[in-house]
Amino acid sequence: MTVVTLYTRPGCHLCDEARDAILALRDELPPFDLAEVNIEQDDGLLARYLERIPVVAVDGEAVSELQIDLDLLRRLLGTVRR
Predict the structure, then answer these.
(1) CA 21 to chain centre
(2) pTM, whole model, 2 decimals?
(3) Which of 75, 82, 68, 77 is nearest to 21 (CA)?
(4) Of 8, 47, 54, 55, which is the most exposed, with the fewest CB atoms less than 10 Å away?
(5) pLDDT computed for residue 61 by the predictor
(6) 3-state SS, one letter per residue, for the chain
(7) Angle CA(45)–CA(25)–CA(74) in degrees, nearest 5?
(8) How far is the C-alpha of 7 from the C-alpha of 24, rounded, in Å?
(9) What is the pLDDT of residue 11?
(10) Would you say residue 73 has pLDDT above 60?
C-alpha cells in the first residue's frame, strides 16, 4: 500500500491543515496509509525540515512542502474513485 508521510511538529497550524486535507482525500482515492513524523523527535529531521514543514512524502519521496499540492498528491495516489 502507498504510504503518505507527513513531517510535522506540535503547534504547527499548517501541518494541521495539511493533515486534514490529506485525510479528506481518503473518500476519493484508493486506500493509502498516512504516517506522521514529529521532526522534533529526530535532530537530523529537525535540522532538515524546520523551515519547510509541513513536508509531504509519497513512498519516501518528498512531493510538497510548506503548502500541500493536492493536485499533485491526487495524481500520485491515483484518481480512481472507490
Answers:
(1) 9
(2) 0.89
(3) 68
(4) 47
(5) 92
(6) CCEEEEEECCCCHHHHHHHHHHHHHHHCCCCCEEEEEEHHHCHHHHHHHCCCCCEEEECCEEEEECCCCHHHHHHHHCCCCC
(7) 80
(8) 18
(9) 94
(10) yes
